[in-house]
Amino acid sequence: MCETCGCGDPTLVPVELKEKILAGNERAARHNREHFVAAGVLAVNVMGSPGSGKTALLEASARAATARGWRLGAVSADLATDRDARRLQAAGIPSRAITTGQACHLDAEMVHRSLHDFPWRETDVFFIENVGNLVCPAIYDLGQAASVVVLSVTEGEDKPLKYPVMFKAVDLVLIAKCDLVPHLDVNLAAIHDALSRVMPSPRAIEISARTGQGIEAWMSWLAEQRAPLAEAPRNHAAHAHRHG
Amino acid sequence: MHEFSLVQSLLSRVGDEARRRSALAVHSISLRVGELSGVDPDLLAGAFEMAREGTVCARATLRMNRVPALWSCPRCKKAFAPGEVLHCASCDAPAELSEGADALTLESLEMEVP
């Protein structure tokens, strides 16, 4: 007799699944990743709080990246506006906005759709600027080669301890707005210490979009990430599989 | 608050499984929720309450088994206390996270078939 709903004489069947609830997103992310790798494009997922300075850092990166001969591109996610994408465009980074409405994060499918009408194959470094949020974007793989979180010095030294899921998930932390340090009661060593308690292999660059501090170190880090891609032969052929 | 979109993925996956087996109802859903999965179990339960109405899961029980985040050294197996620096000084090795601690897994279902 069924105890849940008193339905009489049902046969209860147990079903073992043992699969990730985000398996669908992971499939879509794999698909994006295959495209990026085949085209030799370094895709970077840029995350961080609202106002941490993600867009400003990308603007400041444009000239340094262009000096290295890289062609840049970006999609920029925002709940309601295309302001960030327009800023990046004005800074010389061909960009497209993804307006997410109420969604607090990008998922792999949204990124995939945004790629369909954007010449991302003609780029060397492709930034995916996520929705400003330190929680939700952390768990959605977009198919990027590397993930970065922008943490500004005004946010508090203990931010990494409060958002361990995000910091654990990224390859690099850009400690931003470092030009403000002399005006704040912030201890950079305390930020590095907090990172070492949530990231097993912490990597961080102190950076400022205003003064240019750290921009070259950030470019070198990107170059390091590009190295395995640059060795692979580029394949610009149209892909043979179908899109759902 | 991404728990609602996670519940949508969950309901759609369970719905597929129920249709495939011509199930009349789903009685229980068991999940494993890692401490570092980025999912709040209470928010997930709340989102499930709201979203399940009118679906094959309308009367299903949601069971959540929490998986703690345990860090240890991959070489000497030393366990790290919560909040400790995640690097083993004696082995010069980064700590490793216990299995399942960063995942949200659909473990099993119980469904009623005719």
What does this structure look like?
The complex is a heterodimer of chains A (244) and B (114). In chain A, helix 1 (23-38) runs parallel beside helix 4 (108-115) and helix 2 crosses helix 8. Chain A is globular, with a radius of gyration of 20 Å. In chain A, 34% of the residues lie in helices and 20% in strands. Chain A has a single domain (24-226), classed as 3-Layer(aba) Sandwich (Rossmann fold). A 7-stranded parallel sheet of chain A has the order 4-3-5-2-6-7-8, with helices on both faces. By secondary structure, chain A is of the alpha/beta class. In chain A, strand 3 (72-78), helix 3 and strand 4 form a beta-alpha-beta unit. The N and C termini of chain A lie far apart (43 Å). Residues 236-244 of chain A have low confidence and may be disordered. Chain B is α+β, with helices and mostly antiparallel strands and 114 residues long. Chain B has one domain: hypothetical protein PF0899 fold, CATH 3.30.2320. Chain B contains 2 helices and 7 strands. Chain B has helices at 3-20, 41-51, and strands at 25-34, 61-67, 71-72, 87-88, 93-94, 96-97, 104-113. A 3-stranded mixed sheet of chain B has the order 2-1-7. In chain B, strands 3-6 form a two-stranded antiparallel sheet. A two-stranded antiparallel ribbon of chain B has the order 4-5. In chain B, strand 1, helix 2 and strand 2 form a beta-alpha-beta unit. In chain B, helix 1 crosses helix 2 (41-51). Chain B is elongated. Chain B starts with a helix and ends with a strand. The interface between A and B is large, with 41 and 45 residues.
Task: Please specify the SSE layout and strand pairing.
The complex is a heterodimer of chains A (244) and B (114).
Chain A: E1 11-20, H1 23-38, E2 42-48, H2 54-67, E3 72-78, H3 83-90, E4 95-99, H4 108-115, E5 125-129, E6 146-152, H5 159-162, H6 164-169, E7 172-176, H7 188-196, E8 204-206, H8 215-231
Chain B: H1 3-20, E1 25-34, H2 41-51, E2 61-67, E3 71-72, E4 87-88, E5 93-94, E6 96-97, E7 104-113
Parallel strand pairs in B: 1-2
Antiparallel strand pairs in B: 1-7, 3-6, 4-5
